[in-house]
User: Fold this.
Amino acid sequence: MKPQRDPQAIARAAGRVRRILVPYHRARVIGIEHIPSGPALYVANHNGGFYTGDTYLFAAAVHHARGLADTPWVLTHDLGLALLGRWLRPLGAVPADFATAVALLTKGDKVLVYPGGDADGARRWTDRHQVIFDGRVGHARLAVACGVPVVPVAAAGAHNTAVVLYDGAAVARLLRTRRWLRLARWPLLLSLPWGLTFLPAVPYLPLPARITVRIGPPIHFERHGPEAAADDEYVARCAARVHDTVQALLGGSTGDARR
Assistant:
């Protein structure tokens, strides 16, 4: 299916985010001036399990400051599209597959990816200041293959909207959910209004945690193209560089979120 999005729906959603979520989370998005023109891959840490308020805050701020051209398409897990695709697809949610991302970047658009996926989004609350990409390097391979810069993005505070008590990695392995649901975690969550839940995707009422999103300067890789993308060692080094940059940004955002 050809990716499509509705500019008017995006504008309406961005307006609601600024009116509701920004004051609710006392949110700030810092560093929009670092976003380059042309195609780029936003790479961010993932927070809060099913609730991705930081995604909306980031996208709405970019849309307000830079317009639709820099507003990202969002690579989205199959489960999210299955449950909420009717509402998310008009806003730019697309399947999280390599071919879709390549097509969008080749067209000159910007794409947002969360390399850690559920491993990052379902990390324990005690690990909320850690970026967990779980050894995944597909984002770096994508940027290298397409010859686009990576724009690092780090959100702090969004993992305080609920409390992940246990990430459920062992349970996911036992149930083999990676194979049939593409899920590597089965978290135990403490949230409102449900209390304790032990499911991978539970909508909940987010606590009014302060959220700070920080955007860093773009990362340009020295090599690009198919040959560079096929070099696993090089791609791994690029992925490590991106991870360390997002982690450093998260450290700065954590201090901002506490104030």
